[in-house]
Amino acid sequence: MSEPILGPQDSHIVRQGGFYRDTRRPETRLWAFMADPLCAIVPFCLTMLCLFIPALFELWLLIAIPFTLLVVWRLPLLPMRMPVAARRRDPNFRDQRTRRPGKASGDWLMFVDRITRQPGFPSTGDMRTHCIVAGTTGSGKTRTLLCKQANVVAQGSGFTQVDGKGSNSNWKDVLSLARMHGREAEVRVVNFLTSSGSRETHTWNPFAHANADGIKNLLITLFIASDAGNGKGGSQQFFVDRGMDLIATLSELLAWIRDARHLPINLPTLRRLTSDFDALRQLVLDPDSEEGHPRLEYWSHAEQRFIDEDLRALPPKDGRSRPALPEPIRLRILNYMRETGGYTPGKAVSAQEKVREQHGYVVGGFGATFTQLSGTLGHIFNVDVGDIDMHDVLFNRRILTVILPVLENDKKVNTRLGRFIINAIRYGLAPGVGGQLSGDIDEVINNRFSNAPTVYCLDFDEIGMYASEGAQSILSQARDLNFSTTLAFQEVSSLQDALGKSAADALLSNPRLHFIMSLNDNTATKQWVESAAPRLPVSVNTNYQASNVTGVYLDQGRADVREMPLYTWHDVTSQQPGQCIVTFYGRRIYAEVPNIQLANKGYLRVPANLTLPRNSEQGPPVVTTIPAARTQAAAKLLGRADVLTENDRAGPQGQMRVFCDAYREALSLDTDPDAELRIVYRELAAAFRPNPAGRKQNGSKANSPPASQSPDVPKRDTRTSEADTGNKAGTHPLDTGEGSTSGGVTPDASPSPNEAADHDLDENDPLLAPLLRFGVRSQTLPPSTTVNPTLVDPNPHVLEIVTKIEVFKEESDRSSRFEV
């Protein structure tokens, strides 16, 4: 015999919502019923009743007219905002000044109400208040993020997605979404996955565009652990402080050599400056000493070697001299060397082992990070100027996907990479704040490059794996910069482990729009969900009473008012994939996110890199001399003259030049179109028709028989034009002499319209048929001349002209606007 079950059975569970009571007034219920599509059943039933009882028609008409007006004129109530396309007032959100229904502002489609099946439209202002998407594995977090990304790409903006799961399936959705809207060329990807061996990614040098403060914080994120030293003092804290001082000093140096010396900043150069103490010593050399000027060794990716740069004094600027190295930077480097082991200038480095030893302790922890970035991830970071500029991505609305390797790396390594990405985004946003305080409001405030009618999305998926303190500052400032941030996680405990409980609570309290999907964590996550649920007074039934006759428990007809949460933990855990509970402005909506089905076939490709490969042997061209033509062009521009004149433009060559010269000659005469076409024909015939028998030809063609004497083609008469007689004897018509132009047309011997009529068409000419079809009127041929002569000239040039005229005729027939 089995042990009895002491827990409640299904028959003991109160029906879902069975203890809640609807205490609304009748007119309120009627008003809500008319908003339901089921209200159409009332006029349908009355209409059917009138078919059987016609006498009720007048009564039904009195009821139907006000009922229809109420249904049509009442303002609909949607779960969130009224869509902009509705062009109606929104009764849910009233104007704060007039307290009347506000304008419709919903322009995002994010979900559908599970109960009323009405769509949920947040506005752009709502999305600026940031979002939280909390859900366990398989609950639909990625589906919700994809829905948000589809909205923002359709509006012409972009997004940056940091994927903490390390899967390429999200990359497929992002690329398909961009290709759907014709923005595939704007997609960037930073792929930290290396186990497969493909290493397809775009390159990125985060130090190429950041200022000194940004470089310092990025380096601290990479090399200094967040819990290093823990503020407990001792030798460990001393070396941590020394390391931060070195990073701050090198950041100013790197920014200066990039901006003033135009030298690249890359990881090999940075490693040489940090690990090699002699490289620091060469930067602070006295120019008057025996060792000479300060020197800097930097790595050139083009030449694949270190280059020793002599930091001599720069040319004066604005009447002020510029030293080889700014004195504040030189003093900071020198002070670090003195404070780390007691460096003595002028003394040999080999005699200062204490200094080298202390410096080794300071930078000893940097090696592992340098090895990972330059070796394992060298295909991303080993570049002078990368494909990705975070400032360009954020403010030019591009699409960026970052894939973190969860399974390949240790959790600490992924945390450090995630912190590095978040801080890079944070410093990419910094210029958008604007530092100018004086000036016109339109220039200083209204025309900031972060202002736009749409938002840019920052989506952090699985943020609990790489959360850092910089995320809180992003959420605090991103709304003012027109950015929308989304935090997606599985449990709150991961955020608390990464940031601490107080920092995690502050981070979760910032977003206003919550998408709470299915969750299973009964500890910190349950506590956060229940504390975030809005609580309102509701009417409930407190008890039941059994009937004396049947023994069935019946409702006593009483309702008590109690303050209860708008959703329970059971509502959260029982949700299906894609279902969520949306909380917004104290409201609770049982929603379902649309399932966007993108194409799962086709070829995926990473957009081409924008920069040269790292090992490119062909660098940019080096200009050593300025061409004379460029100097002349500059002189003309300074003199406000045209750089190019008519004589500078090169005309067409070959057959096209013959046609253009003939057409220009025809247009220069004030005559009718028929005469112009005959002039063009005469010049083309003179240029391309074979020479008559007996005329000498140049080259090997002189010994060949004329084309007109071919045994397969009857002999035809050849008429000599003035253009032929004007050429030199034995010279091809194209080879004109001095003072003549191509095709035998001379500027001094332009034929008149009357002369052009003398050179009319020959009835045996193979060009006659297409010209007559084209509509040319002959002055010498009878009207009954056939337009399809049987004579065919085998000369390929003549056949080519015939073909071109035929095509031109067909095109003119198809065009209603063509006139000869």
Automatic annotation (TrEMBL):
Polar residues bias locations: 697-711
Region span, Disordered: 690-762
Keywords assigned: Membrane, Transmembrane, Transmembrane helix
Basic and acidic residues bias: start-end ranges: 713-722
Residue ranges of domain TraD/TraG TraM recognition site in the record: 461-527
Transmembrane segments: 30-54, 60-79
Superkingdom classification of source: Bacteria
InterPro entries the record matches: P-loop_NTPase, T4SS_component, TraG-D_C
PANTHER family (alphabetical): SLR6007 PROTEIN, UNCHARACTERIZED PROTEIN YJGR-RELATED
Descriptive protein name: TraD/TraG TraM recognition site domain-containing protein
